[in-house]
């Protein structure tokens, strides 16, 4: 049996499999979303689950940032003009109303997340107003039992703002740190002191936020194994409940702000491998559990507990414990998952605004999942969340013979067995400790949209 806490670092296999592939926050991935999918499809999807009493997950996108971080690849609008927020919020409220009209009033919102951009760009009173609109249109919990989180920029989070967030119902916060080294911060235009971060952490804990997540990025300009190790140690001193350690993918041809980063200042691929290896070892030795991909959590965290009991799930908000929720997302570029479809709002703010002004759901594209998609999605999600797949239980759930349905895939997996990335014992596929960092490559085997000859290429590397 696998021990979820264990990882084995095998540099030869890491280099060979290259750690490339989709992040599988969905299957099919967003690459398969079709522009023919429109508002009528959203209505049809909602109608199919109108009688459902399953809980909901809500996502709200606030695109504004006061400062540009050169590494960022998010959908954002950089502006110093705070007055741009209210016209967007007014349209967002219409978006919220149109979405809520599609669903039963009895469905409880178990999970809520505000992302961006920088959600704390908007004023405290606007935060109260936005949460009020959500409560008016959806059945939010008022007993602090929900999983209600928000992304925070510590540079824009006063004590009063944190109090406001707690009062309106948030109980989880996620902070971007990236790196504490001043030279690195200057190079990516994200100057943020350790004191600012500690203030939000300490204040958040005093106010009763039950979970705090910190984000780090490795692969930024001027980082070395030694300097990043210093950042990791300072972060561990803060003892966050969860940690995300993301790879910086330098793609200036796609993301204009990254053109301000000098490529010659980036750590080499070899240095990045050392940084990742040492960071993983440090976090595991400090008692954190490797959840998967870039994520770590304390053993008593809900994610670690859910993984231990086979109840972890993955969606556009990352790893989650809310597997039975339809995800309804509102705001520019946000992605929803309702029933057997995914759909995404307009990326372009003007197009989003125009759709709202025309009283239309601002849907840009989407995809209906076929029966085959649902089967493959289940296989991929079991592997990426739990590092195992019970083929016998899978056969009963989907009424198929696993070895026949996935004949080609099982053949390709034989090499992964040889390389000790996976092990097949009886009716169960186990991802070995040496394969957990390569889980994206393993999941790609079950992805019918990626040709077999491209199993190990075609996507950006994560190292």
Automatic annotation (TrEMBL):
Binds 1 [4Fe-4S] cluster. The cluster is coordinated with 3 cysteines and an exchangeable S-adenosyl-L-methionine. The keyword Cytoplasm applies. Pfam families: HemN_C, Radical_SAM. Transmembrane segments: none annotated. The keyword Aminoacyl-tRNA synthetase does not apply. It catalyses: coproporphyrinogen III + 2 S-adenosyl-L-methionine = protoporphyrinogen IX + 2 5'-deoxyadenosine + 2 L-methionine + 2 CO2. SMART domains: Elp3 (SM00729). CDD domains: Radical_SAM (cd01335). It is found in: Cytoplasm. Residues 50-286 form the Radical SAM core domain. Its main location: cytoplasm. GO terms for molecular function: coproporphyrinogen dehydrogenase activity. InterPro entries: Coprogen_oxidase_HemN, Coproporphyrinogen-III_oxidase, Elp3/MiaA/NifB-like_rSAM, HemN_C, rSAM, rSAM_horseshoe, rSAM_sf. Keywords: 4Fe-4S, Cytoplasm, Iron, Iron-sulfur, Metal-binding, Oxidoreductase, Porphyrin biosynthesis, S-adenosyl-L-methionine. Its cofactor is [4Fe-4S] cluster. Its EC number is 1.3.98.3. Signal peptide: none annotated. Pathway: Porphyrin-containing compound metabolism; protoporphyrin-IX biosynthesis; protoporphyrinogen-IX from coproporphyrinogen-III (AdoMet route): step 1/1. Monomer. Involved in the heme biosynthesis. Catalyzes the anaerobic oxidative decarboxylation of propionate groups of rings A and B of coproporphyrinogen III to yield the vinyl groups in protoporphyrinogen IX. Belongs to the anaerobic coproporphyrinogen-III oxidase family. NCBIfam families: hemN (TIGR00538). PANTHER family: COPROPORPHYRINIGEN III OXIDASE (PTHR13932), OXYGEN-INDEPENDENT COPROPORPHYRINOGEN III OXIDASE (PTHR13932:SF6). This is Coproporphyrinogen-III oxidase. It comes from Alkalimarinus alittae. The gene is hemN.
């Amino acid at each position: 049996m696998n021990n979820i806490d264990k990882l084995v670092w095998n540099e030869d296999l890491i280099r060979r499999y290259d750690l490339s592939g989709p992040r599988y926050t969905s299957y099919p991935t967003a690459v398969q979303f079709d522009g023919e999918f429109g508002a009528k499809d959203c209505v049809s999807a909602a109608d199919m689950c109108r009688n459902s009493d399953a809980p909901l997950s809500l996502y709200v996108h606030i695109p504004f940032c006061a400062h540009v971080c050169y590494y960022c690849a998010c959908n954002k609008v950089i502006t110093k003009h705070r007055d741009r927020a209210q016209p967007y919020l007014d349209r967002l409220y219409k978006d919220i109303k149109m979405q809520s009209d599609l669903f039963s009033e009895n469905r409880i919102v178990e999970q809520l997340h505000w992302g961006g951009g920088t959600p704390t760009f908007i004023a405290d009173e606007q935060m109260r107003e936005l949460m009020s609109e959500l409560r008016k249109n959806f059945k939010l919990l008022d007993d602090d039992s929900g999983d209600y989180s928000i992304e925070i920029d510590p540079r824009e989070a006063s004590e009063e703002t944190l109090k406001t967030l707690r009062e309106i119902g948030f109980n989880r916060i996620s902070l971007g740190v990236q790196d504490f080294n001043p030279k690195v911060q200057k190079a990516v235009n994200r100057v943020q002191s350790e004191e600012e971060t500690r203030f939000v952490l300490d204040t958040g804990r005093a106010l009763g936020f039950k979970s705090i997540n910190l984000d780090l990025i490795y692969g930024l300009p001027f980082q070395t194994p030694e300097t990043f190790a210093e950042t990791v140690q300072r972060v561990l001193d803060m003892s966050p409940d969860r940690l995300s350690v993301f790879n910086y993918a330098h793609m200036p041809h796609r993301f204009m702000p990254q053109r301000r980063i000098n490529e010659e200042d980036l750590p080499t691929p070899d240095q990045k491998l050392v940084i990742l290896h040492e960071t993983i070892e440090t976090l595991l030795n400090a008692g954190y559990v490797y959840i998967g991909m870039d994520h770590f959590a304390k053993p008593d965290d809900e994610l670690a507990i859910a993984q231990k009991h086979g109840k972890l799930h993955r969606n556009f908000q990352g790893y989650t414990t809310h597997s039975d929720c339809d995800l309804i997302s509102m705001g520019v570029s946000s992605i929803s998952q309702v029933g057997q479809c995914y759909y995404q709002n307009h990326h372009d703010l003007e197009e989003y605004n125009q759709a709202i002004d025309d009283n239309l759901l601002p849907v840009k594209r989407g995809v209906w999942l076929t029966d085959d998609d649902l089967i493959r999605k289940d296989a991929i999600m079991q592997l990426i969340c739990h590092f195992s797949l019970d083929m016998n239980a899978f056969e009963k759930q989907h009424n198929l013979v696993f070895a026949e349905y996935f004949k080609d895939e099982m053949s390709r997996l034989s090499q992964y067995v040889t390389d000790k990335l996976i092990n097949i014992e009886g009716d169960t596929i186990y991802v070995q400790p040496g394969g957990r960092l390569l889980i994206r490559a393993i999941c790609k085997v079950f992805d019918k949209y990626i040709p077999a000859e491209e199993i190990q290429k075609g996507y950006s590397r994560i190292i």
